[in-house]
Design brief:
Elements lengths: L1 H21 L6 H12 L4 E4 L6 H11 E2 L9 E5 L6 H5 E6 L4 E6 L6 E5 L6 H4 L3 H6 L1 E4 L2 E4 L5 E6 L12 H4 L4 E3 L6 H9 L1 H9 L5 E2 H12 L5 H16 L3 E3 L3 H17 L7 H12 L4 E2 L2 H27 L1
Parallel strand pairs: 1-9, 1-10, 2-11, 3-6, 6-9
Antiparallel strand pairs: 4-5, 7-8, 12-13
Helix pairs in contact: 1-10, 2-12, 10-12, 11-12, 11-14, 12-13, 13-14
Protein name: MoxR family ATPase
Organism: Danxiaibacter flavus
Length: 329
């Protein structure tokens, strides 16, 4: 009985968090769910879109919605504006000389936080982008011979401009692989945009007075609950088949790795919890295969990018459907 109460409480907390974010971010329910999926899966999210679609506000709203013992403004939130002249030490920190102690001491950089907004990450050089690899993969930072652990709750929301824009450096495959989900924020529909124009002052006021609906401890609890979500063996087999098919498809030159498959399963569990369930369904697969795997693949051409992965997914969903039909006969 205690476990059921905990799960019900966890699901209610997720709804509170989604509703709180939607007071500021209008018309982006699906994108909000994907961001929370990455958070509960203990991963990170990459958002690609043109300026002015709400990516930065999304990160701020999420951070301010989570209460912290150390601040009345939510958990420790840092925003880094990536530029071509940015250096790795601007992210990690550096040793400075302390006149009182007569020795060099390490001053921590902005990566030592709970929620990090890496804004326009693809405007920085690959050397700076690579400074994020260790902290995103292992939740730690190594400076010289010393390793510094990061906070238990460390979540990166990175934004990037479309690669066709001037002054951008494409993210290397190793960096892209650290992002559990890549999504396009997109513009809202016409009716929602009209509502935003009519109430932009109210939305701005909501952002300035955002309610803290969950504590950091509750977020960590939700992450643990997400890891316990049930996944049927056939869905695990389907995830394996999709990963293997990306390696054999003639229009995909670089397929998904084993780590990609594990990431997909983690995200499926987290997404099920975000949707109010303690088990994964075929619909979860249909929603997540693209956001989780697409940015990890290299295609032969632009046309293949739009067709290859959906065709693989359709084939596997059809197989699952036949299995269900046979089970009911």
């Amino acid at each position: 009985m205690e476990q059921i109460i905990q799960i019900d409480e966890a699901l209610a907390n997720i709804d509170k968090l989604v509703n709180n974010i939607e007071r500021v971010i209008r018309g982006k329910h699906r994108q909000i769910q994907f961001v929370l999926t990455a958070l509960l899966a203990k991963g990170h999210v990459l958002m690609e879109d043109n300026p002015g679609t709400g990516k930065t506000v999304m990160a701020k709203t999420l951070a301010q919605s989570i209460a912290s013992r150390h601040s009345e403004h939510g958990v420790n939130f840092k925003r880094i504006q990536f530029t071509p002249d940015l250096l790795p030490m601007d992210l990690l920190g550096s040793h400075i000389y302390d006149e009182d102690q007569k020795e060099f001491i390490f001053k921590k950089g902005p990566l030592f936080c709970n929620v990090l907004l890496a804004d326009e990450i693809n405007r920085a050089s690959p050397k700076v982008q690579s400074a994020l690899l260790e902290c995103m993969a292992e939740n730690q930072i190594t400076i010289g011979e010393t390793t510094f652990p990061l906070e238990k709750l460390f979540f990166t929301i990175a934004t990037q401009n479309p690669v066709e824009m001037e002054g951008t450096y494409p993210l290397p495959a190793a960096q892209l692989d650290r992002f559990y989900i890549k999504l396009t924020f997109g513009y809202v529909d016409e009716d929602t945009e009209l509502d935003i124009y009519k109430d932009y002052l109210g939305i701005q006021n909501n952002l300035q007075h955002i309610e803290q609906v969950l504590s950091m401890e509750e977020i960590l609890f939700l992450q643990e609950e997400a890891s316990k979500v049930y996944v049927h063996d056939e869905i695990i087999a389907t995830a394996r088949n999709i990963v293997w098919d990306t390696r054999r498809h003639p229009d995909i030159t670089l397929g998904a790795s084993t780590r990609s498959g594990i990431t997909l399963l983690k995200c499926l569990k987290a997404y099920a919890l975000v949707k109010g369930r303690t088990f994964v369904t075929e619909d979860d697969l249909q929603q997540l295969v693209g956001p989780v795997l697409d940015h990890r693949l290299i295609y032969r051409n632009r046309d293949a990018k739009h067709k290859a992965l959906p065709s693989i997914l359709d084939k596997e969903l059809s197989r699952l459907s036949k299995l269900k039909l046979q089970a009911t006969v």
